[in-house]
Amino acid sequence: MLRIAHLLEAQLRAAMERALPEAAQPLDPQLAPASKPEFGDFQANGALPLAKPLGQPPRQIAQAIVVQLKADPSFAELCLDPVIAGPGFINLTLRPERLCAEVAARLGDPRLGVPSVASEDAPGQRTAPVVVDFSSPNIAKEMHVGHLRSTIIGDCLARVLEFRGHPVLRLNHVGDWGTQFGMLITHLKQVAPEALDTADAVDLGDLVAFYRQAKARFDEDDAFQATSREEVVKLQGGDPLSLKAWGLLCEQSRREFQTIYDQLDITLSERGESFYNPTLQAVVDDLRAAGLLVVDDGAGCVFLEGVRGKDGQPLPLIVQKRDGGFNYATTDLAAIRYRFAAPPAGDGAGRVIYVTDAGQASHFAAVFQVARRAGWIPDGASVEHVPFGLVQGDDGKKLKTRSGDTVRLRDLLDEAVQRAEADLRRRLAEEGRSEDDAFIEQVATTVGLAAVKYADLSTNRITNYQFSFDRMLALTGNTAPYLLYAVVRIAGIARKGGDQVGATSGALQFGEPQEWALIRELLKLDGVIAEVETELLPNRLCSYLFELSQVFNRFYDQVPVLKADEPARSSRLALCRLTTGTLKLGLGLLGIPTLDRM
RNA sequence: GGGGCUGUAGCUCAGCCGGAUAGAGCGACGGUUUCCUAAACCGUAGGUCGUGGGUUCGAGUCCCGCCAGCCCCGCCA
Length: 598
What we know:
Layout: H1 2-19, E1 31-33, E2 42-44, H2 51-54, H3 58-70, H4 73-78, E3 83-85, E4 89-92, H5 96-107, E5 130-133, H6 148-163, E6 168-172, H7 179-191, H8 204-220, H9 222-236, H10 240-264, E7 269-270, H11 280-289, E8 293-296, E9 299-308, E10 314-320, H12 328-340, E11 351-357, H13 361-373, E12 382-388, E13 391-392, H14 409-431, H15 437-457, E14 465-466, H16 469-472, H17 480-497, H18 513-522, H19 525-535, H20 538-558, H21 568-589
Parallel strand pairs: 5-6, 5-11, 6-7, 11-12, 13-14
Antiparallel strand pairs: 1-2, 2-4, 3-4, 8-9, 9-10
Helix pairs in contact: 1-3, 7-8, 7-9, 8-9, 12-13, 14-15, 17-20, 17-21, 18-20, 18-21, 19-20, 20-21
The structure holds one RNA strand of 77 nucleotides.
């Protein structure tokens, strides 16, 4: 429907120019989707703001525009007669045959009418890659609920961008470098030296415990702190023993992370902080050469523009610590520099997206500002922080286990699947159905993981997100099970209707309002995807899929498909096919696979 | 102290470039099954959009003040 909207907008603008030659340019028709179904498909609000400058009543202006519109034969081909409503809105309704033609076109299009950038503006020309930086757990720690949102949201955004045809670099900026390793290695040397030269000498759970101990010592023991800092310097300087220990720890964590990514069907390229180590000094040197670096109290700083502290002094971004070491700001700057730099010395990215919690907003704002002033962000390129809120429990506080620990991601996912299985078994017993264990496991896994992903993606990411197994696994409402069930219903029709569902029928013919409602919903897909691509808000896609499921369920409930006579039967089957295609595509972009039965 | 985010129905949340009478879902209440999976559908009730100003033909949306909650603010990420 985007293509039609663009056509209409051009027609409207031309009509306005003809109707109102005395009006100031440029004229904006203010074309928008109709706010209610009874208003048609689109509304143009452009007459309203012209009332005052032109000194005419807005309805009169609208009338003049409508006269010109109706004189345009290409408009008349597209729409029924426009209707002026309210204070001066122009309501537009597409001709049914145009809607049918759109449906027919999509039935034969594997992309369902969503264009790919590869075929859009510059055919043949390679578009610059988009970097999506997400997940980013820390080595020697387990993935916990804090990584959930970044991982799920980042994967979804990457999928949408990939589907739109962008080359996407899914980068896992793991915490595999820096002070924490100094602490951990120093501590292990004293309490479990075998962990530093033997693979898997201690398991990850122990490593996590050691990490906690190391952190505690670091915070209160000055001598330990000093040794740890020396250890970091040795590591960053390439000391073989330190490097070996570091490699073992990383490998062990990596395998642990991978089981979670496999479970969630998430692809990531690991490129941790350590990758940028060789370029950190150059980053600082470049900043110095650019005249941005100021040594203050022994630390290398870049003072920020527009950010002031208590006493009105500019706040610094510290890029080199007093002891000569580098910190996360240095690494983040090195990453930006590399990602935008031309290949082979960089990624040549045109857009870089950071999916991290909202608490890091000021950090990224500072880093982006410094990178910009250093000239590392090319003209036309964009760097965006995609923030998200905290995961909270039912009590509205940060999600914790009953004993007050952070929730491990694997435990959380397992519990979702277990609850889905228990619910399924209960339902099967109630309905007297019997299914084998393989089916039950398959359904429970799909439903459980889908519920976790969908619950996260379906709320606006900026606000905090209240985690609730009961709500996300509910069979009704805006949940994954509700959407999956719509797909299952269509699969049921396909089973009963044989290969009819797959066949493209002849002329499509529709008459029922439920059919038209479904068609209008189906045709919104391309616009929704375009919106997610620019706004980076997966919940827009979720809302769309939920509304589509609702409209479909109404259709399913009120309009017979298999029992209908031709040509209604074939036309309705075609709608079912397009609906299931749209739902599967949309859910797929959320990282959610579908089922034929549940 | 400075900065950021949030505040919309009992609960969880949408609300796009400022547009028509502010929307869903859950929960509550009432209905629907000879029929493609009722994990569904239909209906009713429920609102001072935190608050006070301002801009505008028009404000949940933009600007300013205030209140509340959360988060960040020199060598952790």
